[in-house]
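Whether sequence alone determines local backbone shape is best considered at the level of individual chains. When preparing material for the folding task, we compiled for one chain both its residues and its backbone structure tokens. The sequence in question and its structure tokens are set out directly beneath this paragraph.
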Amino acid sequence: MTEKMWTDDELDQAIADQPAGPAFSAAARERALARMLAAEAPRPGRKRWLVAAAAVTLVVGALVAVPPLWSDDSGPAASAAETLRRAAAATTAHTAPSEGQYRYVATHSWDVGSATTRTGKPLSALIHTLVEVWVPADRTGEWLERRSTLGSRWLVGSDELVAAEGDGGLFAGNPPVQERRGPCGDYPDVNEELGGDPDWGKPCTERAGSWYRPNPRFLTSLPTAPQALYDRLWADARNDAANALSHAATVLAAPDASPELRSALYQALQHLPDLRVTEETANLDGKAGTALGLARADAREDIIIDPATGRYIGTRWVLLRSGTGAWEGLEPGTEVSSSAVDFAVVDRAGDAPK
């Protein structure tokens, strides 16, 4: 797993929040990012990662409220509703693996890491990571996960500055490729004490799953009537629109979600307060779609979907105000985190789709 270092207090809290499982959960990712919004600047020579690279998506808990960034008219909300209606009508099924085959899930993530040089100058780089997971048709079988660090680019800083003053450990501990295997996605390095997941230790077929870990059993427990699904989503998100959007994103990113469920979820999201079209043509991992988002604290969370095909492309976080602390030097509009997901079916673990 790619090593990303936070401050000691942030790391302690992130570990306490983290449910047991094969990767950072959506909930832990969001909690970490929300905490970073108010983080102080890192000390010279210390690096800080705003989110776990190559995690799946995103906060349960109080966040600082910000004024709406859109006009009060119904235009943006109406556009969001129309986008969701089109996506719901166009949604089709993902190809399912046959016996002996594997579901291939590829998640490209771009996450900002920050540090300071020996003299205290801020550094921020966007790191690109690919996580590939091969899930057997029989989920109780052995899963394979491969994590690859693909590259980086400077947002604040330069190679010349690092050569002169060091990178504060920003790029330390990032092996190019790492693999791990385990039945039902239980990898050997998972610590059951990390979060008290109620599914820990249960047989694979008996795990209830959750919005943050949407396994087939959880997905089939969700209603497919749009109003009933919205009521369930809203209640489980504790009447918080941003949490509800994050819940929805993890289900939309689940390869086992049926077309009926994804269509119903798009219809349910039409009722979500303050959801707006934030970009008519948004590009993520080379794919174009419409971005719909909600503001929280100093950043906005967007989900990106292709309304013409009903395809969920991914999610991103966009800075709304000039960066401070760990985001010092970043301008409004900077994407500080994003992830794009894709699916395929292959015959062998380790094979990439053609």
Summary: Residues 78 and 313 are 21 Å apart (CA to CA). Strands lie at 47-49, 102-116, 122-136, 142-156, 177-183, 276-284, 287-296, 299-306, 311-319, 335-346. Residues 75-90 form the longest helix (16 residues).
